């Protein structure tokens, strides 16, 4: 094993796949000369050249569209958004083209493209740079949505995303790029759509994904001091969503809390709550709880931001 930062795990995944397959290229704002806005593509321009690591103008609709179109002639692009807040400008290309090409062409055109970049709050970045659209993308048939929480999962899942023949939304965080974790020295991949039980317990199931899962670990430590054992499930992928792992855990613990960094109306937590309630009603000893952001635009003030985000207490 070796210890790497989250950004290094991302870079390794992209570089290994680009060495393996000449049809893969990386395109986005500042990915080449600047080594990526968060240094997740450091050294890739030097290794692969400007035809495969491509800086773009500030036009998300433009380069997202170029990426989608290039899949139809045999390429496998990785499109980096500086933040998924900016992906809103390219939503037509993602939702109306990437997610639907296979369906509307009767299977003639797969769309092997990865859209990646940070999501949700990155600190004091203001209301328009701090939004979580994970559930927006997960709502759309035709897209797969991955939200890893650590370097090991990030590398293994990104490699699988790049190899997938359907469009994948791969969501990271500005606040995780410096996080460190152990990964194997040798090549590995992780299957899309399989959750991971990060901590075993018998009293309550806590389901989460992405960087906010750190709050679940803090909460579990506090509960342990009170003699309560928490089982923590990291979804890793929210479309497709691994309900079987959740079901098996809830049948054991009889309680469910869902921790998600998003607005509370119509999110992933809502769907999980409905599904578990309808299928496992007789197993539940208490109402399902979901812990989300406050239902307002993201505040800039650090005092308000702390209150706005879901946290362990």
TrEMBL record:
Q: Which cofactor does it need?
A: thiamine diphosphate
Q: Listed GO molecular functions? A: oxidoreductase activity
| Name of one Pfam family that matches | Transketolase_C
Domain (Transketolase-like pyrimidine-binding): give its ranges: 4-179
Keywords, A to Z, come to: Oxidoreductase, Thiamine pyrophosphate
Could you list the residue ranges that cross the membrane? none
Q: Does the keyword Aminoacyl-tRNA synthetase apply?
A: no
Entries under NCBIfam families matching the protein: PRK09212.1 (NF006667), PRK11892.1 (NF008854)
What name does the UniProt record give this protein?
Answer: Transketolase-like pyrimidine-binding domain-containing protein
Organism source for this protein? marine metagenome
